[in-house]
Structures are given as structure tokens and as C-alpha cells.
Here is the input.
Amino acid sequence: MVHVLSSRVLLRPRDPEASRAFYGEALGLAVYREFGTGPERGTVYFLGGGFLEVSGRSDEAPTPTLRLWMQVADCAAAHAELSARGTRVLRPPVREPWGLIEMWIADPDGHRIVLTEVPAGHPLRHRP
Here is the structure.
């Protein structure tokens, strides 16, 4: 069995500066560490219980199978704040049949990100 000590999602954006502005400024993710120099330097952000690394550059289109899931305290507040910052909102907050409130946004490369709120009374808030 492999004993995983740490993990992170790696993104190779088409425009590293735009992606750093999106994740660092629009979303306000805190920086864990930075490495390298120049426009393709690496920036690793705290992502709740994990990390997101934006480094290098890619000329390929993003894969449509990648989705980032981020839990937030308040989807309506996140929607208002991100909309005011010009973030591309794909779908405003909606209460899903499974009880979570979800909204969808996209990063500069078009990677889809779901912001999820776990409302009071939802089973995910209860521990047996």
C-alpha cells in the first residue's frame, strides 16, 4: 500500500499570470509557497485540505474531465463577491436535489470549479 504524505492538483495554464491573478486575487486563495522565477514560476495555493499548484505553461486545451470542488461557507456571498470581481459564473447558486447548494465558475482556461455550501441540517454536518 502506498502511504500518501501530501498531495496537490497541478495546473499548467495557457496564461500563468492570468491564472495566478484568478486563484490568488479573484478567489483569494492563500499562497503556500512559490518557486522559480519569471512568468512560468510556480505558485502553490492552500486549497482547504489540499493544495493547488499553478506552474509552467501549456498550449493544449484544458481537459474537460477536470473539475475542482471547493467548499465555501456561503455560496450566495461568494456569488456576489466573485461576480463583482468579474469572475466567469457558469451557474449561480442552486440547491441541488441532494441538499447541497452549488454554483459553478470557470478559471481563465475554462477549468470548471464548483463552489459548494453545506447548509445547516445537511447530513454532511453530522458525525455519528
In short: Strands lie at 9-11, 31-35, 42-47, 50-54, 67-71, 88-95, 101-106, 112-117. The longest strand covers residues 88-95. The CA atoms of residues 104 and 114 lie 5 Å apart. The two ends are 28 Å apart (CA to CA).
